[in-house]
């Protein structure tokens, strides 16, 4: 809901508000650009334009000053919410917001002054997203290392195509589309991370093979359409087609209250404003290391084994 702070194979994936995660996947058993100048203090009345640069090796630069950071976040959220803005501008705004949320998740001392400088609606959404990121971060108990994960990163399907799959699954199984989108976001950054978990969970919705055999409807676990339908089937079978049963169903997906809270937070935001889905869909894949900090893993990243972040950034032969 930030970066992917990953540790599988331990590599246990945690995408931080990006902190998401392909945590252990669906199982039947428990798993465990220079900063803009600061603006006057007080609620943000008008925000600076959001940068539209391509993602660099460490992602967009956001300011550390809380009021300036609030201005960047407000601009990003306003851009995502505006149907007149181009898809490229919306995606760039989503990526900028992603990094801002991550910084707040990693630096909780900044959160209160940032929230105080945001308009109420932006503050409430930011608090939820950062809270989700911190929950997912807390699920990862391994210290940061120097290596990037052995992953393959691919382009996700376009947002409208995935949205149609979520709607189909909702119509068939009664599980809300925004819940399925939130699970997809947390498990694989909506399909960007094409890798199995350390526990063996597979596909964009992260199913263990035995669970897929029971709930996958005979489909391909790596196919986004089939995986989304399988996830809806699994959640519906565990009560996820009702609000009263949804928490229990999400617990079956990953038996951790923090996972359930994070999925619920992202889902609530997409339910409240469907355009928030476009911002989340734009989130890219990052890995955080001790020495190099946040490292962008772009489409085409494909490492069969862990690689030192410094070597990767330097373009060293591997």
What can you tell me about this protein's structure?
The protein is mostly helical and 318 residues long. Helix content is 47%, strand content 5%. The strands form three sheets. Strands 1-2 form a two-stranded antiparallel sheet. The radius of gyration is 18 Å and the shape is globular.
Please specify the SSE layout and strand pairing.
Blueprint lengths: L6 E2 L2 E2 L53 H16 L5 H20 L4 H7 L2 H19 L8 E2 L10 H15 L3 H12 L20 H7 L8 H14 L5 H11 L3 H16 L3 H6 L4 E4 L3 E4 L10 E2 H6 L4
Antiparallel strand pairs: 1-2, 3-6, 4-5
Unreliable spans:
1-24, 27-53
Structural class category: mainly alpha
- State the end-to-end CA separation: 30 Å
Number of helices: 12
- Helix-residue proportion: 40-55%
The largest sheet, given as strand count, sense and whether it forms a barrel, is:
2 strands, antiparallel
What global shape is seen? globular
Multimerization status? single chain
Strand percentage, roughly?
5-15%
H/E element order: EEHHHHEHHHHHHHEEEH
Could you report the average pLDDT, rounded to the nearest whole number?
A: 86
Backbone CA Rg: 18 Å
Kindly list the characteristics that best describe this protein.
two-stranded antiparallel ribbon, single chain, disordered N terminus, mainly alpha, 47% helix
Offer a quick outline of the entry.
With 318 residues, the chain is mainly alpha-helical. Helices cover 47% and strands 5% of the residues.
């Amino acid at each position: 809901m930030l970066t992917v702070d990953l540790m599988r194979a331990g590599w246990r994936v945690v995408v931080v508000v990006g902190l998401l995660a392909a945590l252990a996947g669906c199982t039947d058993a428990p798993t465990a650009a220079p900063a803009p100048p600061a603006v006057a203090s007080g609620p943000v009345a008008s925000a600076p334009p959001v940068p539209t640069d391509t993602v660099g090796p460490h992602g967009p630069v956001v300011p550390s000053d809380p009021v300036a950071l609030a201005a960047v976040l407000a601009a990003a959220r306003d851009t995502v919410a505006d149907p007149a803005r181009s898809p490229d501008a919306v995606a760039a705004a989503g990526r900028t917001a992603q990094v801002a949320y991550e910084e707040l998740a990693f630096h909780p001392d900044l959160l209160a002054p940032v929230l105080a400088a945001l308009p109420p609606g932006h503050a409430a959404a930011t608090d939820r997203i950062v809270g989700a990121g911190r929950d997912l971060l807390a699920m990862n108990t391994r210290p940061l290392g120097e290596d990037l994960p052995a992953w393959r990163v691919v382009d996700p399907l376009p947002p409208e195509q995935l949205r149609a799959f979520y709607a189909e699954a909702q119509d068939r199984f009664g599980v809300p589309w925004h819940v399925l989108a939130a699970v997809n976001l947390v498990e694989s950054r909506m399909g960007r991370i094409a890798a199995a978990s350390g526990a063996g969970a597979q596909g964009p919705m992260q199913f263990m093979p035995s669970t897929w055999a029971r709930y996958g409807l005979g489909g391909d676990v790596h196919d986004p359409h089939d995986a989304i339908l399988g996830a809806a089937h699994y959640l519906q079978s565990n009560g996820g087609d009702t609000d009263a049963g949804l928490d229990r169903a999400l617990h079956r997906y990953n038996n951790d209250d923090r996972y359930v809270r994070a999925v619920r937070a992202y889902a609530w935001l997409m339910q409240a404003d469907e355009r928030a889905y476009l911002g989340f869909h734009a989130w890219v894949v990052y890995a955080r290391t001790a020495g190099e900090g946040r490292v962008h893993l772009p489409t085409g990243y494909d490492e069969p084994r862990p690689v030192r972040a410094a070597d990767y950034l330097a373009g060293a032969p591997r």
